[in-house]
Write a structure and sequence with these properties.
Elements lengths: L19 H15 L3 E12 L5 E6 L4 E6 L1 H4 L11 E11 L4 E11 L2 H17 L18 E5 L4 H13 L5 E5 L7 H15 L4 E6 L13 H9 L4 E5 L7 H5 L2 E2 L3 H8 L3 H36 L3 H40 L3 H43 L2 H6 L4 E4 L16 E5 L4 E5 L14
Parallel strand pairs: 3-5, 6-7, 6-8, 8-9, 9-10
Antiparallel strand pairs: 1-2, 1-4, 2-3, 4-5, 11-12, 12-13
Length: about 450
């Protein structure tokens, strides 16, 4: 659109026009990018727990306030539900609720104000005492199975005391209980608790000591995180059971104690035996003892009857021993006669086998003559075999004798080096030869060399 003088209605470099939704979205993104997740402290006001499970409230201080929301997926992990007027700290992400354009904090976690600093102090002191060995498992002592007296360090007005006494009255009525009163909350409570623990150790009136208190916030339980309390528990000559707060609460007293109970009532149960179970155990032991005595008496009676049956009059014992002696005498005589007869038979056998020296010499002479005859025959047979073998070897040797070959008309031809000539082609005219016959030898000279069948022409 242009005006009458054709100038543009909007300058050409003007930014684009945004909708309210676009503006709020850009503002939310800018806030979330600029401000990280942080902790914010303030007082709760206008708290509302919606039907959806989400929490809506405002967080304020003396000068300002900010709207907050904590969705159900986050608040279900909170340790408490805040109320108007509570001083809290929230871990939140600053953002903008686009639908209304309202600045708000999206809470991720919530705790009571000061709890973070207290927890840091708790961790620091715990690490210090742990390094000193106050929490070592080797320092822990077992609780007595049958305590004669029980000590309790707590406030006389504490509801935990009534819970402990109720449990003790139910489990072990008549068990003596000594109360060492001390405040369990507020200024100086830790020093009074430590003093009562030391007093119980000095008096040695009880066999086990309970240090207990009901549940509460970290600030409420802080007296049991006092360093003096932890050291007094660790130094106590009496075994200590700590029952402070609920099952999820942990204090330095729990770590220093010999036994940690999740609740005060659980501490009373751990420190005291159960009367009706002891009675049942005694009844079982009584039944077992009676049965054992009855079995033992029955066995002894049977043994007595057996011994009574075996008991004899001395004259009867002598008679039986005399009869046994007679039996043994007869057995000895029979064995002696049997052995004598066996030895006599053996002597007869040896005598029958024994002959005169002359007959023995005659038998030996006959045996020697027989052996000599066999030896002569064996020597003759061996000599005949040797002569036959020698004759065969002489015949074979005569066939190989060169003289017999020469006698059949053959001769031996040798050259000047006296080497036997086997091939005429190795000779040349004028070579000197030595020819040996059966009788005598001659020297000859080669005049003509004639090759054998298939050889080359004459040289």
């Amino acid at each position: 659109m242009t005006n009458a003088d054709d100038s543009p209605l909007f300058p050409p470099n003007e930014p684009p026009v945004l909708t309210v939704s676009e503006l709020n979205r850009m503002a939310r993104r800018a806030l979330e990018a600029a401000l990280p997740l942080l902790w914010v402290e303030g007082e709760v006001s206008n708290f509302t727990a919606a039907a959806s499970g989400h929490w809506y409230f405002s967080l304020k201080d003396a000068s300002a306030q900010v709207r907050c929301v904590m969705f159900r997926g986050r608040n279900q992990f909170a340790e408490f539900t805040p109320a108007n007027g509570d001083h809290v700290e929230i871990r939140a992400l600053p953002s903008l609720y686009e639908a209304r354009g309202e600045f708000q904090l999206g809470a991720e976690a919530i705790r009571r104000a000061g709890a973070g600093r207290l927890y840091e102090a708790f961790l620091k002191l715990k690490a210090k005492l742990e390094a000193e060995g106050l929490f070592d498992a080797g320092r822990k002592r077992p609780l007595p199975g049958f305590p004669r007296c029980l000590g309790i360090v707590t406030s006389p007005q504490a509801a935990a005391l009534q819970d402990v006494l109720t449990v003790l009255a139910r489990r072990m009525p008549g068990l003596p209980v000594i109360l060492y009163p001390a405040p369990v909350q507020g200024q100086g409570a830790g020093a009074r608790i430590a003093a009562m623990i030391r007093l119980a150790g000095q008096r040695k009136e009880c066999d086990v000591l309970l240090v207990c208190r009901g549940g509460g916030s970290l600030e409420d339980l802080w007296a049991f995180n006092d360093e003096a309390v932890a050291r007094a528990i660790a130094a106590s000559p009496v075994p200590v059971v700590s029952g402070v707060g609920h099952e999820t609460d942990f204090t330095l007293a729990d770590f220093a104690a010999d036994v940690r109970a999740p609740t005060p009532t659980a501490a009373a149960e751990l420190a005291s035996p159960e009367r009706h179970k002891l009675i049942q155990q005694l009844e079982r032991l009584d039944v077992h003892l009676r049965q054992s005595n009855a079995r033992s008496l029955h066995n002894q009676m049977q043994r007595l009857d057996l011994l009574a049956r075996r008991l004899l009059h001395p004259s009867e014992q002598i008679r039986r021993q005399q009869a046994r002696l007679d039996l043994l005498t007869q057995q000895l005589r029979g064995r002696r006669q049997t052995r004598q007869a066996r030895e006599e038979a053996r002597l007869h056998q040896l005598a029958a086998r024994l002959s005169s020296p002359t007959s023995r010499i005659l038998r030996e002479h006959q045996r020697i003559q027989s052996a000599a005859g066999r030896m002569q025959r064996a020597a003759k047979d061996a000599l005949a075999r040797r002569e036959l073998i020698l004759s065969r070897l002489q015949s074979n040797l005569s066939h190989l004798n060169p003289e017999r070959v020469l006698a059949r008309g053959y001769s031996i031809v040798q050259d000047d080096r006296e080497a036997i000539v086997r091939d005429a082609t190795t000779l040349r005219p004028a070579d000197r030869l030595h020819i040996r016959f059966h009788r005598g030898r001659v020297d000859a000279e080669v005049r003509l060399v004639l090759p054998g069948p298939g050889a080359d022409a004459p040289v």
